[in-house]
Task: structure prediction
Amino acid sequence: MNILNSIYKKAASNPRRIVLPESLDKRIIKAAAKVAQEKLAIPVLIGKRDKINKVSQDCSVSLSEVEIIDNNDAANFEEFAAFYYKNRKHRGVTIEDAREVMKDPLFYGAMLVAQGEADGFVAGAVTTSGKVAKSALHCIGVDDEIKTLSSSFIMMVPECVFGEGGVFVFADCGIVPDPTSQQLASIAVSSAEMLQKVFDIEPRVALLSYSTKGSARGASVDKVVQAVEIAKKMRPNFIIDGEMQADAAIVPEVSQMKSPDSCLKGKANVLVFPDLESGNISYKLVQRLSKARTVGPLLQGLKKSCSDLSRGCNVQAVIDAITITAVRN
Result:
């Protein structure tokens, strides 16, 4: 899609150092080689060089332009272990525990980002979302203002007139099961800033519900109403509205009938779901039924950029995630 091509150009104009801890997965190896070849980012693989090179040979790709770090022999290993120990000793972590953690390429890679030696990391091809999120939380930490780790998907729906020419941000689809009003507001702000940062598009944020402007009642509706108020206080210059049904959020004609005074006018491009269940179901349905191209889950609300991957991802999905993680900096 043309809009994604613009992201590739943006990434190539200022290549960032992106860590790929899952260095023995063929999809990761192929994506790293392609990204380096096209100079979209500076990929960094973590692990044993001989094992990584063996996989690259099996894939018939060259890693001549890809950096490889063996975390177990790295000069900064002890420094990273000490930093992890300092941050986690209140949880009973010992220095020996910290050293064991840094032997894990995922946590070592996250620490490279935390210490400013890399700009972001991408993982999840063979690792659960829970472990990817844990490494980000323990090593990088949440943003002091946002205070909520969440995730979003960039959805690119072909031949779609809604959203931003078929481009949407869906959130949260991967992290927070039942967000509070404060967490929903933080998710809304993080998602809006994601769209703005990556695509230079003005975000128009709808907090979704089964109710539009009081058409139904319930505790979940009240939660969304409160979240809208909090989000507007957090970012008074953003276009944010809710509670709102999905059709009122994205279809101008329906918006005119159901919420004629809404600032969104049925043109939302950021959709914030009231819980993880609805968000996850919705993104998968849209992805499969419309053959949408998706990127994510992109982790947000952290001090530095990182992205999760679906374990069913293909090489192109990894390349997309690397590229978007790079331009978020």
